[in-house]
Amino acid sequence: MPGYCTADDLSQHVLQAYLDKLEGLKPGLIAGHIEGVTREIDDRLRARFVVPLASPPETIKRICAVLAAFRVVGAITSVMRTEAASDNSWLPLQTLHKQALKELEAITTGDLDLGLDLLGVEPADQDCGLTAASAAPLFPESLWRGRF
To answer: What is the residue extent of each domain of the chain?
Structure first.
């Protein structure tokens, strides 16, 4: 299953040299985290949308890249040090991680609309192929007028 982001997308949030070093230490680490995050995103979206998303919006791609980058870095080093520490070089990634989780929650609750088709809702301009028909009335309408 292809992920909602690529290994190259993670370099928007983590230096490529660092990612290369991590991949050298643990081959498959990046791809594994991308696949895991993609499956988790699908799990969150499954109640509202058809998954996997055939054409994921840029917001989903970014969320996937941020969450995967955070997990890749977390697999090797502790990114969980206090945010108050001035030497926390991972603070920007931690902030992006928190924001990505909030956005994912907003998508699942419907507070953030990405323009995806909801489950069970047919687009208005789409013909569903059904035609309704009924038999002719048993009693004409004129029979009932003025009787009640």
So the answer is: 7-112
What tokens does 107 get? Answer: 């998508």
Q: Which of 25, 88, 30, 115 is nearest to 64 (CA)?
A: 30
Q: Once rounded to an integer, what is the mean pLDDT over residues 8-21?
A: 92
Q: Which residue has the tokens 């993670």?
A: 10
The answer to whether the beta carbons of residues 71 and 95 sit under 8 Å apart is no
Instruction: With a cut of 90, say whether residue 27 has pLDDT above it.
Output: yes
Q: How far, in Å, CA of 1 to CA of 15, rounded?
A: 26
Is the pTM higher than 0.70? The answer reads yes
Calpha distance 121→38 (Å, rounded): 24
DSSP-H helix ranges across 2-147: 7-10, 16-25, 29-45, 58-76, 91-109, 141-144
C-alpha separations of 64 from 12, 30, 137 in Å: 12, 12, 59
What are the structure tokens assigned to 113, written together? 């609309």
Vertex 86: Cα angle to 33 and 65 (nearest 5) = 20
Q: Distance (Å, rounded) from C-alpha 57 to C-alpha 75?
A: 27
